[in-house]
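Hey, I'm writing a tutorial for new members on how sequence and structure tokens pair up, and I'd like a real worked example in the thread rather than a made-up one. If someone can provide the structure for the chain below, I'll link this post from the tutorial.
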Amino acid sequence: MSKQELEIIDQDAACCPALSAAPLGEDEAGELAKFFKALGDPVRLRLMSMIASRGESGEVCVCELTPAFDLSQPTISHHLKLLRQAGLIDCQRRGTWVYYWVLPGVLDRLAAFLATPQAAGADA
């Protein structure tokens, strides 16, 4: 069953060719633009990095994210909400705390889009 899920993720990445492979269609560009717009803010980029770099658990409590910034907790929550709305992360409330994780396949999809084929680099 997990292999089937991996195949679906690979198919999603295939529908979005690498930047240098072919021009993007309107729908693909719109979807990827949401990701990049959300990551275009330094605070959100740092939050995404902190969440994505989480070890074995793959999730991080908002109580661990907030002290890393010189911003109020509501401001951090707003940035996290924008990352969620863009489809980069998801969360779950557990008691008084909220835990965040990167959605499966998102980073791979962004990496595949930005990747340059090795053959093109060798020809240069």
